[in-house]
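Example (one chain per record):
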Amino acid sequence: MDIRQIIKETINKSLTKLSLRTESVLLEHPNDIDHGDYSSNVAMVLANDISENPRQLAEKIVSEIEKDLPKEIEKVEIAGPGFINFYLSSDFFLESLQEIKKVGNKYGQNETLKGKKLIIEHSQPNPFKEFHIGHLVNNIIGESLSRVIRQQGADLKVVSYHGDVGLHVAQAIWAIVKKELPSETVVDLGKAYALGAKAYANDEQAKKEITDINKKIYTESDQEISKIHKLGREISLEHFEEIFTRLGSKFDHRFLESQSALVGKKIVLDNVGKVFEESQGAIIFPEAHSGLHTRVFLTSEGIAPYEAKDLGLIKLKRDYFLFDLSINIVDVEQGEYFKVVNCAAEQVSPDLKGKLLHIPHGRLRLTTGRMSSRDGNILSGEDVLNRLTSLALERMQDREIDNREEVAEKVAIAAIKYAVLRQTAGKNIVFDEDKSLSFEGDSGPYLQYSLVRARAVLAKAKKEDLLAKLSETPVSGVGNLEREVYKFPEIVLKCLEDWSTHHMVTYLTELSSVFNTFYANERIVEKNDPDCPYRVALTECFEQVMVNGLNILGIPDLKEM
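Predicted structure:
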C-alpha cells in the first residue's frame, strides 16, 4: 500500500477532469502536523502556467478530489496561497500498523531494482598501511548503501579493492629490508611505510632504491622482495577481515591492484591512437578527449599508475559480474580524477556510458584535529573504535549489564556510524566522541536506547499477560507515533533516490523522539485501560521499524544497555 501513489493518482484524476495535466506531483510532509500528513503545491505550479489565481485553482482541484475521496484520505484542505493538504484516515493508520505486524523484517522492502544487477565497491584499505579513519568512513557509507540497495530487490555484489602494489608498498618493503624492521603485524607494516615514505621524500639515494624495489614488485624478479610482499599482503588482508567483521561488513569478492594493473596496461596499449596518445615516452588521455584535464595512463617506465589500474578494475568487475550499474564510494577529493577515468572507460567501451557511478564522502576530523598516515602520525580506524568502546565502558560502569564489553563495542559502533551517516554525501564530518555517546538524542546510542526502552515495555506487557491487539483505532484517536512509523518505506526509497542514508538517520531520530514522548505521556501497560492492547501493539510496530531502520544503517540493536 503506497499512500503517496494513491494521493498522486487522486490529484491526477482531478486534473484530468479539469483538462489539466502535469509531469509530476510533488508531495511533502508539512513541518506542522496540524497542516496534514501530506501537502502539494501542484495548484501553484499549474496556476503559473495557465495564468490563474493559485488558491482559486486549488479550490477547483479539491472540489474534484472530494467527489471521489479514497478511503485512505479523511479530508483535504487548502492552506496559504494554494497548498493542498491531505489528512489521512484512522483506517489508513490502522491498516499501516497491521501491515508492519504482518510483514515484520520485510517492512520497507520493495522491487524498485528488481531484475537489476548492481556492484558496489567500498572500504579499499591498502596492504602495508593501517586501516585508517578514511577507510572507516568509506566502509560505513558503503555498507549502509549496500543495505539500502538490497531493500529494493536488486541482485547485488559487494566488493573491495586493495592497493597491494605501488609506491607505498615499495616504501614499506624498503624500510623492512634496509632498516631491518619487523614485518609480522599490521602495526609493523604501518611503521615501515611511514619510515619509507619519509626517506623517499628526503633522501635521493633512498628514492632510487625504492623506485627499483617498485619495479621488482611488478616484475616479481627478486625472490626476497616477492616473499616480503606476499607475506605483508596476507597479514594485511587477514587483519582487514577482522575489522570488517567488527563493523558487520561482508564482501562477495575482493580485487587487487596487482591484478588490475596488468589488465589496465593491456587496455591502454590496445587503445593507443584511438583513445590514448603517446607523449614524451608516456601514454596519456589528453584533455582534448575529455574536456577535463590530461592524465597519464602509462608512465615512461611502462608502469601502470592508478589511472590504468582503475581502468583494469572496471574490466575485472565486468568479467566477475555483468553489472547494470557499478557504484564506487570514494573520497570527495577524488571526484575530478574519476571523471577522467570514467570518460576514458566509456570511450574504450561505449556500452559503459551511464553505468559508472561514484559517490563521494567527506573527510572525518576529530575535534582534536586531523592526523595523516604519511608522516607516521596515524589515525587508525581501530583506534577510534577502541577509544569509543573504552569510553562506553566507563559510562556503563554503574549499570548491571551482561556481556558488558560486547554491549560497549556495539554502542561505540552506533556512535561512529551515526556521526558519519547523518551527513549528506560529500560533506566533511567533525566528530565529537563525547557527544557521539550521548543517550539524550542526536546520536547512535540514543536510537539504541529508545529501542531498548520499547523492549522493556514489551517485556513488562508479556509478564503481565497483556496481549497486543490492532482490531480497531483506540478511543483516544490516532497520535503522532502512528503518523511516523508508516513513513519508513518512503524513507527507504528516498535513500535510494539520493544515494544517501542521512534521510534514515534523520527519520529514526525523529521517530525515537516521538516514541519517547509517547512513552512519557501514556500508560502503555495498564490492564484496566481498554486502549492498552492497542498501545502495546503500537510499541511493537515501533520496535519493528527501529530494528529495520538500524539494520539499514548497520547499527547493532541491543536488548539492554
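Caption: Residues 381-553 form a domain with the Isoleucyl-tRNA Synthetase; Domain 1 fold (CATH 1.10.730.10).
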